Amino acid sequence: ARPNFVIQPQNTEVLVGESVTLECSAAGQPQPRISWTRGDRTPLPSDPRITITSSGGLYIQNVDQEDGGQYTCFASNNLDTIHATAYIIVQAPPQFRVIPQDNAVVEGHTVDFHCEAQGYPQPVIAWTKGGSSLPIDRRHTVLSTGTLRISRVAPHDQGQYECQAVNIVGSRTVSAQLTVQHRVTPVFTNSPRDMTVDVGTDVQIQCSAQGEPEPVITWNKDGVQVTESGKFHISPEGFLSIRDIGLADQGRYECIARNTIGYSSASMVLTVLVPEVSRNGDQFVVTSIAEAIANVDQAISSTRRQLFDRRPRTPTDLLALFRYPRDPYTVEQARAGEIFERTLQLIQEHVNQGLMVDLNGTSYRYNDLVSPRYLNLIANLSGCTAHRRIPNCSDICFHQKYRTHDGTCNNLQHAMWGASLTAFERLLKAVYENGFNLPRGISPIRRYNGYPLPLPRLVSTFLIGTETTTPDNQFTHMLMQWGQFLDHDLDSTVVALSQSRFSDDQHCSSVCTNDPPCFPIMFPPNDPRARNGGHCMFFVRSSPVCGSGMTSLLMNSVYPREQINQLTSYIDASNVYGSSDHEAQEVRDLASQRGLLRQGIVQRSGKPLLPFATGPPTECMRDENESPIPCFLAGDHRANEQLALTSMHTLWFREHNRIATELLRLNPHWDGDTIYHEARKIIGAQMQHITYSHWLPKILGEVGVKMMGEYKSYDPNVPAGILNAFATAAFRFGHTLINPILYRLDENFQPIPQGHLPLHKAFFSPFRIVNEGGIDPLLRGLFAVAGKMRVTTQLLNTELTERLFSMAHTVALDLAAMNIQRGRDHGIPSYNDYRVYCNLSSAHTFDDLKNEIKNPQVREKLERLYGTPVNIDLFPALVVEDLVPGCQLGPTLMCLLTTQFKRLRDGDRCNRFWYENPGVFTPSQLTQIKQTSLARILCDNGDNITRVQPDVFRVAEFPHGYINCEDIPKMDLKIWQDCCEDLDCRTRGQFNALSYHFRGKRSLDYSFQEEMPLQNPKKSKMSSIAGGDAPISNSTISSRSVNPKRETVINDFQEFVLEMQKTISSLRKQIKKLESRLSKTDCTDENGKERSNNENWKKDPCTTCGCKEGQVTCFVETCQPANCLKPVKTEGVCCPICIKQPVKKNRKH
Description:
Keywords: Coiled coil, Disulfide bond, Glycoprotein, Heme, Immunoglobulin domain, Iron, Metal-binding, Oxidoreductase, Secreted, Signal. The chain is α+β, with helices and mostly antiparallel strands.
């Protein structure tokens, strides 16, 4: 018979340590055999505790928790096998796996007590304090893991906490003690003291502090934070060590101890003595400076020949032309700085000394190199002192009303603050490998904090470059474009004038060595660029400021290298007008005397384009097969970099001329200079309003706007210069907002026939504006297309990292790698240093970054690249930080941008916020300026833009989110109309009469009844003369007069007659001048040459201009594509032609 169970096993509960039996018996013929398995098929373990009874039951002695589970009984004979299952449920009292530890925490912080237990059933964790229930509030939380978390610990939370683990079998309790430490502001245990040391020595300044939490020590010198470098070292205790003391190190040092409670500071003054002794390098000064001048001049001349004698052939040429300064003063100042530094390098080579260590490990010191009097001689002979400006701010009447072009005299107490061609400002001291001028990473074998610095190109390819982009659902591409346009109003670094080594005149891209000014970007192994045989990407260092930024007339010490900002720092529309008088003269239309900017060819819309730049072949004439159209000329030399930027320049040049034309209509008595400066002042105010009111809140969000704070008043003690870290790293975050395509849309917001443009085809291509529909398609592509969303894993699109300025058969540049290399070139401290400056914690491990960089893959990439967070370059770290909710920035980037824009706002005497100055704007004029929007600028100055969204920075659905231009608020310029009396209009609006205007009666300044004083003295006089009853004012009565009243009336009448005669004479002269101008039918060409009426001339081979009744009109010839492989460009002929090549005959031998 088949087996059948007589007794089947049953589920059984048992306590740990007891014994248990699962009964099982069966009947059948033959008698079934009984066997057991664990689960379905697992054999029983070989354990003496486990046996099978004679009746077939399973017996387990001294049960433990591992014995719990499913067991199966099998009954088998030769006819069949049957089975039955049962569970042994082992119950166990709680046992602690994690025991809470005693904790000491500073009040206000969060503390966790970890407690975990096991048992069966699973124990429940409960917490008590001193045997009583926990307080019922949100600060005490028991997590699902059993952890007790107490947030914002208060003093009364101190005490014993008990963790209880409970199940049906039993319970266990364990306790831990919480000690609450009172918060203590840092107190100095060792304060710094004044010191006097000799030049060339090493010094240690002691400073230490205690507090709860443990304070962090930082140092400032003259308001700038000191960072770890070849010059400075801060010990864990807080002691500051300075190597190779020089006069540049003299000054006030401040030790700051900071914790979460507050901070304390103590300062000392370091005085440096310079003994009058000769130095080893003195004997080499004369020969070295002569050699330096020859080296630098030869390299610059070679570069100029290479760039200007032919069309650009490589991206390197494009980059050099793009950055080459057009202002002769800038060229001379950069040249002088290069000669100064090259001289010191040559002297160092002669005496085989320097500041820190050379590659052989020899100790070097720069302050022992040359004595102070010889340093001053080097400064004189190199040209440094000759090009140091001393601004004249004595014409208060002008400076009360208008800005200078170069930014001087904005701050009347510090006339050079914010001026062009001055050094960038610093928040943290520069970090150079030798403490003076060598960038980090210049030595490929050197380790920094135990790790080598990664190659910038490797950081770009491994971390930054992306082929994937995500459209932004909030903001348009115009958000990016305004940021770039604004940046070109704030900063432009002067780079080295030479592309060749000073030592032997070899081109930097061919030698790939770190010889000044070359600082090439090396290719890592397996880089796609290296597969074609290349070893490096072209890069040259920025030019140094003469004497590295020191301002004393006596240059008697070596200073760390600083870089030159070519532009004014203020938001003053310098990208429209230039940052020097020379640049301003280039873009002004001086011939018309109407205050206009020069204009170029007029399009079918009737609106002009920018004028063309003159001079040698430029970066825009790079391909003979595309077009011979030269670059456009604007206030900033980068206007042609890409077409969307060129379109913005065109908008604002037209806006100036529109405003100037209207001001002249309202005030025909104004001369050209007055119209120009008034229009320029309005344009600058419009740009500030758009930036601070419309653009910046979208970048900073509510959090950043609150950080920047409300504007209170102009502060002359706030330096408004551009921070080096802002120009070199922080504001370059905008590169992450760039779309890889420039969209071009027609009036119906559909693609134009020529299609959209990949970004690499938009670089230096003004011919596309001339020949492919003007600026409107590009502008619509900015405000009608979503921008690129900021995603920390989608940073710079590959159009910027792999195809920047690309040309046929050449290696393109990499913008991300260049940003990193430029930061090292400028001595920008690491990301970790800026975290500390911005009150974030100093990162010791990459996990310390998890609050700001949450993505573990990004942190892992940073660790693989840098090895330690202390080494991370500033730019890549800023762009991978997680965004603060509601803005476009991470926390460190937010800190840097709010700092910069607050300085620009509070430190600008001439900004639109400064209501108190009656010479800037009246309240009524300010009200009109606030009507400005970028949407209105587009409507007024586009070729035919008729519909926009009210806020062109925000994505809007077409057509529902768009409105007609007639419905966009506009600025009413009638508020700028002079409401002067007839007697005064002869001098009102004459630029050279500003002093007269400001010394004149205040009544002339008022345009509205409510703004006028109660009585006008001149009207009182006239009333008296006319026999009115009003008393005579401002008159002098003679004591000898028989009839004082009559004599006074006669004197006033004589004065009135004289005034009338002068007025009539002035009016006759102005009428003659106007008649002469109206009858004039000749013209003035772009070179200032007079052209007669109906005369035609060639501006260049492709441009024909003609004079017609005083108006110059130019036509540009468009070239058809050549039908041959190698068209030939003939001198004097616009378009390349095809020449049939003679067939070469084989020579018989």
